[in-house]
Amino acid sequence: MSGDQVDVSSGKLQNLTLNEEVEESVFFQTYSRLETHMDLLKDTARTMAYRDAIEQNRQLFEGKVVLDVGCGMGILSLFAAKAGASKVIGVENADIAALASQIVKDNGKENVVNVVQGLIEEVELPDGIQQVDIIVSEWMGNALYMEGMLHSVLFARDKWLRPGGLVLPNVANLWIAGACDPHRSLNNDFWNNVEGFDMSSVKIQVSHEAVVDCVASQNVLTSDYLVHTTRLESAPNTPIKFRSMFELEVLRTGIIHSMILYFDVAFLGGQTETPVTLSTSPHAPWTHWEQTVLHLDNPLYVQAKERIIGGFGMFPSSENSRCMNFELGIRSKGAKGQASQFKYFNSSQKL
Ligand SMILES: C[S@@+](CC[C@H](N)C(=O)[O-])C[C@H]1O[C@@H](n2cnc3c(N)ncnc32)[C@H](O)[C@@H]1O
């Protein structure tokens, strides 16, 4: 789906081709599966960050109207109800909404939580509600912006959030760092001989794919650099397109095979001294997002204290606006002289 066919601020999908409609339907079918939600709920770093953020900001939730954008099985709505919200509306387009309603009843919260099935861009809120005090949502995708769900949250903010209202999480940061991959050449050589067949022609295509993988903390060789921030209470609802320069310090001598992307989000509430954050850094506890890995064609042989300078860009894919493409340029000045490289990456995965 091209970025031009989605007017993100109105939330309208315009002139979708059959293919694009199928992609949207596959997206919500994935979220209709219990297994998908079980994986999310079992991601304790994720789920507990939301729980703690809501519990620690109880005073902000008491007596308030809360909108949960993409409520899934209703966990964030239930947290908000438990924290004293007077009304919670959980909006969910996937068929899992029916289970969410049941779960709300099973937990005796049906007088507070109302699950509405439909697209946030199309639903009316129940009981004539025109304004909400707080929006909560777990919208983040791989490399933060995959899945494009941020636009649905910002759409809801622009339509229903009262002036001065709260969006949780309210800050999202995307980071880049350099890492080594001890299995890189093994993985690359795999294509040379697959059960006796030469599949090496796919190597070029594979090398342009951004890969979601778990990067061990000890394989990160550089400092990290903040390449993009979204402040959810004020960011304009426009397509995510940016380029950022970055500068990394090499912390340990070694070989950098890839640049890695990860994000964190912060729940900045009222009076809590230490706001809750949820980080997907390799140095933080594991999450289902893991890290997004951009493999370099030419590994960098680096020594501690060297600096790597580069540029990173991110743009919606022209084939599917829920996917993002990346560009990466790197210049390093090391013992083996100066090396520059530039590369595009695409991400075909939807989740
Ligand atoms: C990552 S899941 C989070 C589910 C739940 N809030 C949780 O934390 O476990 C995102 C949910 O948002 C729903 N969703 C995405 N875009 C939506 C939209 N535009 N309107 C309604 N629901 C949407 C998806 O179907 C999915 O269930």
Protein described:
Helix content is 23%, strand content 35%. It is α+β, with helices and mostly antiparallel strands and 351 residues long. The chain has a domain at 171-351: Hnrnp arginine n-methyltransferase1. The strands form 4 sheets. Strands 8, 9, 10, 12, 13 and 14 form a 6-stranded antiparallel beta sheet that branches. Strands 5-4-3-6-7 form a 5-stranded parallel beta sheet, sandwiched between helices. A 4-stranded antiparallel beta sheet has the order 11-15-16-17, with no helix packed on it. The model is unreliable at 1-5 (pLDDT under 50). The protein binds S-adenosylmethionine.
Tell me the layout of helices and strands.
Blueprint: E1 6-7, E2 12-13, H1 18-30, H2 34-42, H3 44-56, H4 58-61, E3 65-69, H5 75-82, E4 87-92, H6 96-106, E5 113-117, E6 132-137, H7 150-160, E7 161-168, E8 171-179, H8 184-189, H9 203-207, E9 211-213, E10 225-231, E11 242-249, E12 254-267, E13 276-279, E14 291-302, E15 307-316, E16 324-334, E17 337-346
The structure holds S-adenosylmethionine.
Keywords: Methyltransferase, S-adenosyl-L-methionine, Transferase
EC number: 2.1.1.319
GO cellular component, one term: nucleus
Q: What do we call the CATH homologous superfamily of one domain?
A: Hnrnp arginine n-methyltransferase1
CA distance, first residue to last residue: 16 Å
Q: For the report, how would you describe the main beta sheet? A: 6 strands, antiparallel
Please identify the structural class as seen in this structure.
alpha+beta
Task: Report mean pLDDT, rounded to a whole number.
Answer: 92
CATH level 1 class label of one domain: Mainly Beta
Bound molecules: S-adenosylmethionine
Could you spell the SSE succession in H and E letters?
Answer: EEHHHHEHEHEEHEEHHEEEEEEEEE
Q: Could you list the spans in which at least 5 consecutive residues all have pLDDT below 50? A: 1-5
Q: Which outline best applies?
A: globular
What is the correct CATH architecture of one domain?
Answer: Distorted Sandwich
> Count the strands?
17
Gyration radius, rounded: 22 Å
CATH topology of one domain: Hnrnp arginine n-methyltransferase1
Total helix count? 9
**Helix content, binned percent:** 10-25%
> Which percent band covers the strand fraction?
25-35%
| Assembly type | single chain
